[in-house]
Specification:
This protein is of the alpha+beta class and 174 residues long. It has two domains: 4-97, Peroxidase, domain 1 (Orthogonal Bundle), CATH 1.10.520.20; 100-173, no CATH class. Helix content is 60%, strand content 16%. The chain contains eight helices and four strands, in the order ααααααβαβββα. It has helices at 4-16, 21-34, 38-44, 50-61, 66-77, 84-99, 114-128, 159-173; strands spanning 101-108, 131-138, 143-148, 153-158. Strands 2-1-3-4 form a four-stranded mixed beta sheet. The longest helix is centred in the middle third of the chain and has 16 residues, at 84-99. It starts with a helix and ends with a helix. It comes from hydrothermal vent metagenome. Its EC number is 3.6.3.14. It holds the Pfam family OSCP. GO terms for molecular function: hydrolase activity; proton-transporting ATP synthase activity, rotational mechanism. It is found in: Membrane.
Length: 174
């Protein structure tokens, strides 16, 4: 969940780094991935000099832009470095809205051909008037599930759901 404070920081970053926003968004995504590592969490919560922590985050991001450096320093001075994953997520949503490009995921137990995925991509993009790219992820879901988190959209058809509805209709007709 994205807090209102994280949204404000993401909006401020969008306004100040208009031309370089894609690179900064990628850099923040790298940093937020580092937050998933326990050692990084220990370093961020330790008594290490705060400027060294900011320098570490800049090194992780592989982006030495002045805007990113200043942004991280502002977050550090306000003790908000822990919000970086939320800010990164909010920023990626804002960048997707700005570029009108979204990523969706298709989950299924069955293999889905690339041609089918492209047709699905084209039809959904046309329906929502947005540029949507779909990525197939094989899992144990009995049916098919389409999830576009950036648009808060999820469509799923499961074999059990269809079977239950069919049985209900048969029982109602008897």
């Amino acid at each position: 969940m994205i807090t209102p404070i994280a949204k404000k920081y993401a909006n401020a970053l969008m306004k100040s780094a208009d031309k370089d926003i894609d690179n900064i968004s990628d850099a923040l995504e790298k940093i937020s991935l580092a937050y998933n590592i326990k050692k990084t969490e220990y370093i961020l919560n330790s008594f290490v000099d705060k400027q060294k922590i900011v320098n570490l985050l800049i090194d992780i991001s592989d982006n030495s832009s002045k805007i990113l450096s200043n942004f991280l320093n502002v977050l550090e001075s306000r003790k908000r470095l822990s919000l970086l994953p939320q800010i990164s997520h909010a920023l990626s949503l804002s960048v997707a809205d700005k570029n009108n490009k979204y990523i969706g995921y298709v989950y299924s137990k069955e293999d889905i051909k690339q041609n089918t995925l492209l047709v699905l991509e084209k039809n959904i993009s046309k329906k929502f008037n947005k540029d949507i790219s779909l990525v197939y992820i094989k899992n144990n879901f009995e049916g098919i599930c389409l999830d576009i988190e950036m648009l808060n959209m999820q469509i799923s058809f499961s074999k059990n759901q269809i079977k239950n509805r069919l049985l209900d209709n048969i029982l109602k007709s008897i």
